[in-house]
From TrEMBL, chain A:
This is Trafficking protein particle complex subunit. One of its GO terms (biological process) is endoplasmic reticulum to Golgi vesicle-mediated transport. PANTHER family: TRAFFICKING PROTEIN PARTICLE COMPLEX SUBUNIT 2. It comes from the Eukaryota. It comes from Nitzschia inconspicua. GO terms for cellular component: cytoplasm. InterPro entries: Sedlin.
Automatic annotation (TrEMBL), chain B:
One of its GO terms (cellular component) is Golgi apparatus. May play a role in vesicular transport from endoplasmic reticulum to Golgi. Homodimer. This is Trafficking protein particle complex subunit. Belongs to the TRAPP small subunits family. BET3 subfamily. GO terms for biological process: Golgi vesicle transport; macroautophagy. It is found in: Endoplasmic reticulum; Golgi apparatus, cis-Golgi network. It comes from the Eukaryota. CDD domains: TRAPPC3_bet3. Keywords: Endoplasmic reticulum, ER-Golgi transport, Golgi apparatus, Transport.
Length: 139, 188
């Protein structure tokens, strides 16, 4: 298992709506350069996500891009919101389960009358729950 | 009217009333609140006031339906009214069991463990302490009791969305109004 941190992003139609950097237990935070590179890798893979989306009927798009040792996996929701996970190699199954759990949390969040779809997600509850799910499936 | 008969009455009435989808109910109220929030432009007092007024309109109409459908006995004191309101009326319309706490001869509290309006709702940070989401209930109680000639003041004391463990509505009797159709119809 690689030592690189995981970066999870929720991307809307125009901009990222939510991001979470998930560290493995015991590891320290990433340096600035590594963090910037992570964002770059994720954003450059968005084009590939779009093209992959037309090839399959599934929501889970598996690995869409591979840069150096890092993989980008994506999950597309019904309203075209993209969940993107940058990781250093994880089993397909655990990522799929992670995405589905986050999808449930996202649906509950979108039912909140105070949350407007395709806007930034600022709820601390959502953040806490996503991190819990990540710890369960990806740590 | 004893406590248990009020609640059994409520339970039978709840079984008989036609039901609406809980999600539809909660989401409808949620979008109503979002509209009011958008119109009020940040003034939380105005939002609370609007929601209370909406509740008031609901209250003055639903009290007739309640009295027609339930066979609630004549209330001899405010305690009886409180029991009927909390156990029968709330159960019949919303399916929730309220605990009734009598605080004084003119004040009582309704305590709700859970609130069907709150399904999926999470208040944003800027409204968390000030927006009284369930103030609709306060308006309903105020409207209903005013139709029965009780002028009351209802406040939301505890709020689950704010972090408390229950919802508490305090109802305080201010005045008992005189029956009458108003000055225009006074007979000479």
């Amino acid at each position: 298992m690689s030592n690189q941190p995981l970066l999870f992003l929720i991307v809307g139609s125009n901009e990222p709506l939510y991001e979470a950097e998930i560290h493995r237990r015991g590891s320290t935070g990433t340096s600035d350069a590594v963090a910037r590179q992570s964002y770059f890798v994720v954003h450059s893979s968005l084009d590939l996500v779009e093209s992959a989306a037309w090839l399959t009927q599934n929501m889970y798009l598996k690995v869409v891009d591979k840069v150096n040792q890092q993989y980008v996996s994506t999950f597309l929701t019904a309203s075209n919101i993209k969940f993107v996970l940058l990781h250093g190699g994880r089993s397909e199954d655990s990522i799929k389960n992670f995405f589905y759990e986050v999808y449930e949390l996202y649906v509950k969040l979108s039912m909140n009358p105070f949350y407007h779809v395709d806007t930034a997600i600022t709820s601390k509850e959502f953040d806490r729950r996503v991190r819990n799910v990540a710890r369960r499936y990806l740590a | 009217m004893s406590k248990s008969s009020a609640s059994t009455n409520g339970a039978t009435l709840w079984a008989k009333t036609p039901k609406a989808n809980a999600e539809l109910f909660s989401l409808t109220y949620g979008s109503l609140v979002t509209e009011v929030v958008r119109d009020a432009d940040g003034n939380v007092n105005e939002i609370n006031e609007q929601l209370e007024k909406i509740g008031y309109s609901i209250g003055i109409r639903s009290v007739d339906e309640f009295l027609a459908k339930s066979n609630a006995a004549h209330c001899r004191s405010l305690q009886d009214t409180a029991q009927v309101l909390g156990k029968t009326a709330f159960k019949m319309f919303l399916g929730i069991d309220c605990d009734v706490q009598i605080l004084s001869p003119t004040t009582f509290s309704l305590i709700m463990q859970e609130n069907p309006l709150y399904l999926f709702v999470e208040l944003p940070e800027n409204y968390k302490e000030t927006l009284q989401y369930a103030i609709l209930y306060c308006g309903i109680i105020r409207g209903a009791l005013e139709m029965l000639n009780y002028k009351v003041e209802c406040t939301l004391v505890k709020n689950i969305l704010k972090g408390d463990d229950v919802d508490e509505i305090k109802v305080e009797l201010k005045q008992i109004l005189q029956d009458g159709a108003g000055d225009d119809y006074k007979e000479d």
